[in-house]
Amino acid sequence: MAASSAAFVLDGKAIAEEVLARVAAGTRRLEARGVKPGLAVVLVGSDPASQSYVAGKGRAALALGFHSAQHTLPAETSEAELLGLIAALNADPAIHGVLAQLPLPRHLSPARVVEAIAPEKDVDGLHPVNAGLLATGALERAIVPCTPAGAMVMIDKACDKLGRKLDGLEAVIVGRSNLVGKPIAQLLLARNCTVTIAHSRTRELEAVARRADVLVAAVGKPEMVRGDWIKPGAIVIDVGINRVAAPEKGEGKTRLVGDVAYAEAAARAGAITPVPGGVGRMTVAMLMANTLAAAERAARA
Hints:
The protein has 301 residues and is of the alpha/beta class. It has two domains: 34-120, Rossmann fold, CATH 3.40.50; 145-281, 3-Layer(aba) Sandwich (Rossmann fold), CATH 3.40.50.720. It has ten helices and eleven strands. The strands form three sheets. The protein has a six-stranded parallel β-sheet. It has a three-stranded parallel β-sheet with strand order 3-2-4, with helices on both faces. The chain has a two-stranded antiparallel ribbon with strand order 9-10. Helix 7 links the parallel strand 5 and strand 6. Helix 1 packs parallel to helix 10 (283-300), helix 2 (48-63) crosses helix 10 (283-300) and helix 6 packs across helix 10. The longest helix is centred in the first third of the chain and has 20 residues, at 12-31.
């Protein structure tokens, strides 16, 4: 696989807008049948980052014509109160997607909260039932976590640009988290890739990465994947978002970098995602896509 003179940069903003345009069209079709997709977001506490994320999700839902509901609860909310709200949202036919914004206050169990959401309304794709459906290949019934789903859209975009098919390609995922690494491995396996999940204990990690036609970095270590880890012409998907010191911008300043040393990798890759502006821009778009899909399934039931 020959390297290009310059890697094709996968523009997360542009690709997310394409996804949102398809969701908007699907929403109009569904509304013509008398069904408006409904998304409920539950925020516990006043963490500024979580407030920003929740507000962004609400704006995106309203822009698409969804019914959007936000429930903001005080940080001292008990688990019983939170689970009661989730039960009510599960029972509400106007709500097709429910998510509890993470992280939660320490006295609340994320596992119990996620598992309380009805699997068919779990638009974050984190419920064990959805994880099990994905693992067993039942993609037509599973709700896929948003970040891996968005990464797959970007991989398909790269394949289209480079004139390749995923069938038979070797994919390496650096990172084994339940949120990203494992789900994207299942998605690539379902597309007939030969998949290796690598991690911090993998022997000769650099050599394993160099085999990859598709390399996904989701390990949470700034610029760990260096340029000489990249197979010439590979598709490189960087899921990492890390804040590092940027003294060149002034004292105390920081900048965002991924898990891949971008400039080095871009010199060898066929296609690559930037950070920021890459996979992260896809997450809200895929949340909206999951909500529409959940509403469509409910309408068929």
